């Protein structure tokens, strides 16, 4: 089962996009009098979905919304895991702080697999329309940008007792990495584990809440002493070894290229492509043109990887909505738009390609 789409209305950077009502509402639209507001809508492929764009366009927000929805697909959730969207951003947030508009506008996000729908209304502060979603049991793993296994000693015990300055995704990744290893490894995963093991020169073990890299020569290296890029590979090895990235699961990874030596981009891209071939749907947010391009040039077919470009801009509004336009001009706010394609070159307003081209222009001018 794969996540097919997300709709977001008036949450975080995703604001209401007005237009004149010329007929019935379509999916992702809300009718208010003679006006219709379009929710931000993004459709996904079954394979690897790569979210790109400048800072502040909502890439991480989308990943966390999808992750929260998958957590709500379980009838019985691990008590050590959080489930509400707010928890995946901060343990101090209130719903009102996440809303784009402070007026009476409806604010929600909706995730669908094409048949079933999960909707979280931040306006009403409750989950709506998830009766057919609950029980789908969509296994998922979220890898945050911040490396967490170096802080694992006593982490989960302290989190149970105290209010910790970490969001739910950071807590969950420690929980997932701390799970016991599976007895048997699927044949499709063995080659991936071998590749990652060769890169970190060993395997990952946990003793007394502390993670180590057990080197092939027998040395046991504290996880915090490894280079952060190698820790990412070690975490990925542990998640696969724990049986969390198998057919039917969803992997959400925020900036896999962060603190990673560019020479390792092909390795990580290759691992993600193999996981996708094994039936894992993948969502990554990246600022790296090179990393995204490796996914494109190394895929076996174009449908395996889809690129989603998020960017800020302004829209043409009808005369009847001039007052709303003037309001946007006063606040200086720009709406977030998107376009999707199977080739990076087909994306409009592609900021990571613009930055890459600007660098090349400077090189040529030397």
From TrEMBL:
Keywords: ATP-binding, Nucleotide-binding
InterPro entries referenced in this protein's UniProt entry, alphabetically: ATPase_AAA_core, Bact_Antivir_Def_Nuclease, P-loop_NTPase, Rad50/SbcC_AAA
Span of domain Rad50/SbcC-type AAA: 40-118
Residue span, ATPase AAA-type core domain: 193-290
Superkingdom classification of source: Bacteria
MF-aspect GO terms: ATP binding; ATP hydrolysis activity
Gene Ontology biological process terms, A to Z: double-strand break repair
Keyword Endoplasmic reticulum attached: no
Protein name from the UniProt record: ATP-binding protein
Organism: Hominiventricola filiformis
């Amino acid at each position: 089962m794969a996540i097919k789409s997300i709709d977001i209305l008036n949450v975080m950077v995703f604001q209401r996009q007005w237009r004149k009502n010329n007929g019935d509402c379509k999916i992702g639209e809300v009718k208010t009098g003679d006006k219709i507001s379009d929710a931000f809508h993004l459709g996904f492929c079954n394979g690897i979905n790569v979210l790109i764009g400048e800072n502040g366009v909502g890439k991480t927000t989308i990943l966390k919304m999808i992750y929260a929805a998958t957590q709500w697909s379980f009838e019985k959730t691990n008590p050590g895991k959080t489930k509400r969207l707010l928890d995946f951003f901060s343990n101090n947030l209130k719903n009102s702080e996440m809303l784009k508009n402070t007026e009476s506008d409806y604010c929600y996000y909706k995730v669908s697999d094409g048949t079933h729908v999960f909707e979280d209304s931040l306006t009403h502060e409750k989950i709506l329309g998830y009766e057919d979603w609950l029980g789908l049991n969509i296994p998922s793993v979220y890898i945050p940008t911040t490396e967490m296994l170096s802080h694992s000693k006593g982490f989960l015990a302290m989190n149970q007792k105290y209010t910790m300055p970490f969001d739910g995704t950071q807590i969950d990744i420690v929980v997932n990495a701390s799970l016991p290893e599976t007895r048997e490894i699927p044949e499709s995963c063995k080659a991936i584990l071998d590749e990652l093991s060769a890169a970190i020169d060993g395997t990952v073990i946990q003793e007394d809440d502390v993670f180590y890299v057990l080197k092939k020569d027998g040395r046991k290296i504290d996880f915090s002493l490894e280079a952060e890029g190698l820790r990412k590979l070690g975490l990925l090895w542990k998640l696969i070894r724990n049986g969390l990235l198998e057919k039917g699961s969803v992997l959400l990874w925020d900036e896999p290229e962060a603190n990673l030596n560019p020479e390792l981009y092909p390795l990580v891209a290759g691992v993600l492509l193999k996981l996708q071939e094994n039936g894992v749907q993948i969502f990554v947010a990246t600022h790296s043109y090179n990393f995204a391009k490796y996914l494109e040039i190394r895929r076996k077919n174009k449908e395996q990887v889809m690129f989603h470009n998020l960017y800020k801009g302004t829209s043409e509004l009808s005369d009847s909505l001039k007052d709303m336009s003037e309001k946007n001009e006063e606040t200086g706010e720009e709406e977030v738009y998107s376009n999707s394609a199977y080739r990076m070159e087909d994306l409009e307003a592609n900021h990571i390609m613009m930055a890459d081209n600007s660098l090349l222009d400077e090189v040529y001018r030397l």
